[in-house]
Amino acid sequence: MSLFKKILIPTDGSEYTKAAISEGLELARLLGAEVTALYVVDQTSFINFPMDSTIVSVYSLLEKEGKEAVETVKQEGEKIGVKVNAIVEEGSPVRKIVDSSRIHDLIVMGTLGRTGVSKILLGSVAERVVRYAHCPVLVVRAVKEEPS
Predict the structure, then answer these.
(1) Average pLDDT for residues 60-88, to the nearest whole number?
(2) Which CATH number fits domain 6-141: 3.40.50.12370, 1.10.530.10, 3.40.50.300, 3.20.20.70?
(3) Which of 69, 80, 82, 128 has its CA nearest to residue 101?
């Protein structure tokens, strides 16, 4: 019997999460697990702005991007026979992922692998999720393109 029956795959829709999505879906296939694809519309970016039409447009664009991101995970899962629940939520990505970790057995997520000043200034969602999650976290480094 597998310990990992419910796997959470957070995605931001970027190229950097593709390796984690592939790894997470393949792991789910091998273990017979169910996957939840989660995209969080980061409201923390909008806290200090009045909700005018420009902000509403940006928010709508992010919400659309989120739906497309989780739908992509769902379609990739269907190709290999993995059931994927697609969820788009609003809030702080770290908080939503950590909250979701309570009802999942494993989180598989990507990282840019930032170091130095970039990491200090920007922080790392993956690092904070690893620190506070209520279940194991598998962090998959994004595959870098080799220079030609």
Answers:
(1) 95
(2) 3.40.50.12370
(3) 128
What is the pTM assigned to this prediction?
Answer: 0.86
d(CA 140, CA 130): 12
SS3 3: coil
Separation between Cα atoms, residue 15 and residue 7, nearest integer Å: 20
Determine contact, residues 36/96, Cβ cutoff 8 Å.
Answer: no
Rounded Cα gap, residues 42 and 66, in angstroms? 10
Cite the DSSP H helix spans in 32-115. Answer: 53-79, 93-100
pLDDT digits (tens, 9 = 90+) for 93-125: 999 999 999 999 999 999 865 555 545 444 588
Alpha-carbon gap, residue 28 to 107, rounded angstroms:
11
Helices vs strands, H then E, count in the chain: 5, 5
* Contacting residues for 50 by C-beta, under 8 A, at least 6 apart: none
3-state helix, strand, coil split of the chain in percent (to 5) is 50, 20, 30
